Amino acid sequence: MPSIMADWGLHGLLSPLLPDTSSWRPRPEPTIAVLGSLALLFVWYCYRVGSGQAAPASHQQGMPTEERCPRRALGSDAANQRLYRSLRDYAKRYSWSGMNRLHKGIRDQAHYQLGERLAIQKPSAFYLPDLPSAPYFPRESQRHDVEILELSFPAILREFEGIAWDFAPGAPTPRGWTANANPGCHSYYLYRQGECVAQNCRSCPWTYRALSALRTFVNANRFGNACFSVLQPGTVLPGTYGPTNTRVRCHLGLKVPPGCELVVGGEPQCWSEGYCLLVDDSFLHTTAHNGSPTDGPRVIFIVDLWHPNVAGPERQALDYIFAPGR
To answer: CA-to-CA distance for 52 and 258, rounded, in angstroms?
Structure first.
């Protein structure tokens, strides 16, 4: 009886329902299928990761691709579209390396310029982001060029006196001089918006020679100028913004009577004869000559220098994008 019950145990009851395992042997087909599936998944994963991170082969390393810079991101501003096309043309000729900050500035230019809103710093033409900003820069930031100009002070002053006139109101402006929009202010350009004024340079050979010795003179794009600036007593120039924060204006004091003042970003300063003052004129700035008529005009020599934190490749690209006549 116990043997019969053992036959009718759990195994005995389920044995008709289970396959016969005595003859079962593992087969390779399922293992191969699983490994093949895993291999396909791995290939697909590598493809997705590679296509999501790598730039197309036609782009050089560091180039912002069309996906990163869609045209709609530039908005409908025709000027910004033109700037982007110029940057793209430059990169095709040379390289996209080091252009990330320029690309960002062009893409977001409307945001940086702030429209009609008042701001302490608002370049009127082009703002390069992530540059250290201050209304005034220390002399050490442009030590070489500052020393060249200050050593040339006697020659520059002498050549100014050779081209000066009485600047009387209503008098005809002599050849080479420019009457500014504000009465009481005149300029004599050696370089104007990146172009050499040859006749004026020939009239001031020592000043021209000093300019040629400068390392950071902006002389190849529309933001670069070098000129004598004359401000008559009683003249006040209203607040304005310079065109860009990529330059630093160097003011060499030639004749500075009492009562002259420069206010940049809310900080007042004054020139000193024979010394340079470095100014970021993309900040709101005003100029005034509050002296008496007997004091004579205030005279400075202005030179536009590169901002010390604009890198070499960025300077070359800016010269290309903002070349005179472009």
So the answer is: 65
Cβ pair 128, 245 in contact under 8 A? yes
Report pTM.
Answer: 0.77
Least Cα distance to 121 among 2, 291, 131 occurs for: 131
Mode of pairing for the β-strands spanning 247-255 and 260-264 = unpaired
How many other β-carbons are positioned within 10 Å of the β-carbon of residue 182? 13
Residues 140 and 278 sit within 8 Å (Cβ to Cβ): no
Rg of the chain in Å (alpha carbons): 35
- Name the one residue in this structure whose structure tokens are 């020659």: 155
What angle is formed at CA 83 by the lines to CA 78 and CA 86, rounded to 5 degrees? 125
Q: What is the pLDDT of residue 75?
A: 43
Residue 28 corresponds to which tokens in the numbers above?
């390779």
Q: What's the whole-number average pLDDT of the chain? A: 84
Instruction: Decide: 110 and 231 in contact? Cβ < 8 Å.
Output: no
Q: State the distance between the two ends of the chain, measured CA to CA, in whole angstroms.
A: 111
Both structure tokens of 221: 């794009």
Q: 């402006």: which residue's tokens?
A: 173
Got the DSSP string for 125-151?
SB--TT----SEE-GGGGHHHHHHHHH
CA distance 230 to 299: 5
How far apart, in Å, are the Cα atoms of 318 and each of 83, 198, 314? 10, 23, 6
Helices vs strands, H then E, count in the chain? 11, 12
Q: Give the tens place of pLDDT for each residue, 93-126.
A: 999 999 999 999 998 887 776 566 668 999 999 9
Residue 22 pLDDT class (50, 70, 90 cuts) = low
List pLDDT tens digits, range 311-320: 999 999 999 9
What is d(CA 259, CA 288) in angstroms, rounded to the nearest whole number? 8
Token readout for 256 is 């500075």
Whole-number Å distance between alpha carbons of 127 and 129: 6
